[in-house]
Amino acid sequence: MVQFFDNISDDHAEWIRKQKIFFVGTAPLDGRGTVNNSPKGYDCLRVLNPNQVCYLEMSGMLFYFPSLRDSSGIETQSHLEENGRITIMLTAFEGGPRIMRLMGTGRVIRVDTPEFNTLMETHYEGSELARAAGKRAIILIDVRKVSTSCGYGVPYFDYKGSRKTLIDTWAKRDEDKVKEYWKTINKSSLDGLPGMRHELLGPDFVGRNRGAGEEIVLPGEEPWGALLTGWVKASPAPVNAAYVVAGAVIGGAISHLYSRRR
């Protein structure tokens, strides 16, 4: 039986902390775009309050697959920056059956920013990922709805432990190797949305992630000033100059006619 809640209860939070894996679902606005579903392990998910959770995001390991060097691994960040929609799903593989979904909006908190460092100190001190190399961001999610369902169709599995390959591999690579990975693998999503943004990567990768309390502005809903700025940047210089001259001439003619009527 499906039940819906407006927040995460104490019972929900206790159950969430016991789970060893969860799944992150996001998608672009384009109906032809790629829906993404990422499994997450390690001790990285935190319940911050009844309507907010976060998880620590690690860099991947696509450099082991040369044919995928222009691939993504940055889908969640790209989708969140575009539209903010996100669902986290957890399911019980042992004990009583349960599936839980945390539905809401998320934003990206970049590594080595003040907000990132505060969350690390407050919620990840002493965890296995606290000192790990390859940390990329914290995904902060405002949960607007929680659903639970039976999960009788989910099989039992025994937990044997975390895989150490990811942490061990990044421990052998310096900061320059991490940056190279972000620039070559995480530069854009599979559908061409902007990927990793960080001033550490140089001018081509500078970008500002959405801040706390900042409204999500969907494509097509930008204020006129932002639309005009984007149009000017996208148009060739001669075209822009021609439109500016034409606007000045038309404006001058209207002003002249108005002054003569007075």
TrEMBL record:
InterPro entries, alphabetized: Pyridox_Oxase_N (IPR011576), Split_barrel_FMN-bd (IPR012349)
Transmembrane segments: 241-259
Domain Pyridoxamine 5'-phosphate oxidase N-terminal: 9-150
Keyword set, alphabetical order: Membrane, Transmembrane, Transmembrane helix
SUPFAM superfamilies in alphabetical order: FMN-binding split barrel
A Pfam cross-reference name: PNPOx_N
Name of the protein this chain belongs to: Pyridoxamine 5'-phosphate oxidase N-terminal domain-containing protein
